[in-house]
Write a structure and sequence with these properties.
By secondary structure, this protein is an alpha/beta fold. The chain has a domain of 209 residues: NAD(P)-binding Rossmann-like Domain (Rossmann fold). It is built from eleven helices and 13 strands. Bound molecules: nicotinamide-adenine-dinucleotide (NAD) and uridine-5'-diphosphate-4-deoxy-4-fluoro-alpha-D-galactose.
Length: 332
């Protein structure tokens, strides 16, 4: 079975390509390298010992996408491609709406024309906004607080409408919580350009002495130690969730949404302390004001993914911290 992975050179896409190849799927990647590098393909091939067909293309290019679908005979698609930085989306909303929505519409049109109607889509816990209670289940009300989140919610709506119009589609919407960590080999991982926005990439740069100290955004939340709580999930566990989702869309028609998280929340200070302990390295930090727009705590109910997809996260927070640091050490 041949799976097209859009954004397959990126952080989550690359780990998912590894799991797909290890599970016996043929993999075709389309990525315009706007936030990744082509050498990721070699690394995926090194890890798996298998070949990946790579197209450096923009998914918004309909002619090219048609050519790829014509020559590759794609069975199913995992759609990761898109821009993902919350702050940048506030500054450049048009760029976010154009890229994330346009690429998805083009992809779906081409899929329809080629009668390929199985898709797994990367959504985000951001669609839950500020949840009224925890853990978050898939039927919680949806609301967004920034353009990035709005693109995810709009794409979910587009997919819903598409399914209503044609019940032949099989659609799995995966709402990721906070992916961190890297592949055990240290060959692939998260490597953002410039100053990171997210916690783990920032911790890693402080530990590596590229940045002086971490700012902890607030210690007056109603949480275990006052710092923000999130559901961190190892990227390899997350990638494995996509294999289960591909199996599901291959077997059953319909549309459904699944949280992919561990179901456990960790505070910023718990993450810092675990990182320091397992890697035996210092991470200097200071407490600063809350970051505007942040919520106090967020973690998933994973029951639906457990029950319906037969998936659950296996790796613990220690492995997430160890593997994130291993990736940096292997790529100095
Ligand atoms: P990433 O930036 O590492 O990967 C995205 C890839 O898509 C990049 O390689 C980029 O070059 C490519 N791309 C972007 N626009 C494209 C286009 N028009 N045509 C072709 N390629 C294009 O991001 P990631 O962390 O791997 O995230 C993957 C998906 O998961 C995204 O849709 C993101 O919004 C979603 N997501 C990520 C997180 C997270 O914390 N990383 C959380 C929730 C959801
Ligand atoms: N934090 C700090 N200092 C930093 C960075 C983060 O204290 O330098 C704190 C935040 O305040 C928060 C926690 O660490 O309490 C996690 O922050 P991240 O920025 O790593 O993650 P968020 O939960 O804020 O957001 C992430 C993605 C969003 C996605 C959301 C839900 O960045 O795109 O998870 O899935 F929408």
């Amino acid at each position: 079975m041949k799976v097209l992975v859009t954004g397959g050179c990126g952080y989550i896409g690359s780990h998912t390509c590894v799991e797909l190849l290890d599970s016996g799927y043929d993999v075709v990647v389309v990525d315009n390298l706007s936030n990744s590098k082509e050498d990721v393909i070699d690394k995926i091939e090194t890890i798996t010992g298998k070949k990946v067909k790579f197209y450096k293309e923009d998914i918004c290019n309909k002619d090219k996408m048609n050519e790829i679908f014509t020559s590759e005979k794609i069975d199913a698609v995992i759609h990761f491609a898109g821009f993902k930085a919350v702050g940048e989306s506030v500054a450049k909303p048009l760029m976010y709406y154009r890229n994330n929505i346009d690429s998805t519409l083009t992809l779906l049109e081409v899929m329809k024309e080629h009668n390929c109607k199985k898709i797994v889509f990367s959504s985000s816990a951001t669609v839950y906004g500020k949840p009224a209670s925890l853990p978050i289940t898939e039927d919680f009300p949806l609301q967004t607080t920034n353009p990035y989140g709005s693109t995810k919610l709009m794409i979910e709506m587009i997919l819903n409408d598409l399914y209503i119009s044609d019940n032949d589609w099989s659609i799995a919407i995966l709402r990721y919580f906070n992916p961190i960590g890297a592949h055990k080999s240290g060959l692939i991982g998260e490597n953002p350009n410039g100053i990171p926005n997210n916690l783990m990439p920032y911790i890693v740069k402080v530990a590596n002495k590229e940045l002086q100290e971490l700012s902890v955004f607030g210690n007056d939340y109603d949480t275990i130690d006052g710092t923000g709580v999130r559901d961190y999930i190892h990227v390899v566990d997350l990638a494995k969730g996509h294999i289960k989702a591909i199996e599901k869309v291959t077997k059953d028609k319909g549309i459904d949404k699944y949280n992919l998280g561990t179901g456990k929340g960790y505070s910023v200070l718990q993450i810092i302390n675990t990182f320091k302990t397992v890697n035996n390295i210092d991470v200097p930090y200071k407490i600063v004001d809350r970051r505007p727009g942040d919520i106090d705590a967020c973690y998933a109910s994973t029951k639906k993914a457990n029950d319906v997809l037969n998936w659950h996260a296996e790796l613990e927070i220690e492995e997430m911290c160890r593997d994130a640091w291993n990736f940096v050490n292997k790529n100095r």
